[in-house]
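hey so u asked for the seq, here:
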Amino acid sequence: MANVDHAKIEEAVKMILEAVGEDPDREGLLDTPKRVARMYEEIFAGLHQDPKQYFETIFGEEHEEMVLVKDITFHSVCEHHLVPFYGKAHVAYIPKNGKVTGLSKLARAVEAISKRPQLQERITSTIANSIMESLEPHGVMVVVEAEHMCMTMRGVKKPGAQTVTSAVRGVFAEDYRTRSEVLAFIKG
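ran it, structure tokens below
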């Protein structure tokens, strides 16, 4: 990712270490700024990706029943505290007019959207909106469950608390039975 300024990140990490009272020149911390810069390059790789790119390949298949990929694991970074949150995304859609995408494309879109400073609510709605705009299905439903380290490590300190968000579009918003079917499949 050419847009990451490693030198700037390394200097900032060194300053943070000094600010908290650490010695950035001690043996265990000597390479930490470089490691953090490489890590940021990796975990923020989605910043310059458009998730809709994953839905450019469409297969013609006369299937107008629900498609659900559940338990798509993801990791992201809370934009408020720059600490991780992680969990699972469940993505369902009902194709229309023979427009079906590859199953892995749904997971790739989740990955691209989550690899940037984020809010769980934004991840959820961006996935749903990207699918609606690209595939024009009968409907989309996205449910995201995550644990936020900003609630576990600091502040309220409640490990194990799960945040659940959903985005419901099209027929899933209009028909409670269709929405209930997705939720039943997610619960397993």
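Residues 120-135 form the longest helix (16 residues). Residues 99 and 138 are 10 Å apart (CA to CA).
lmk if thats what u needed
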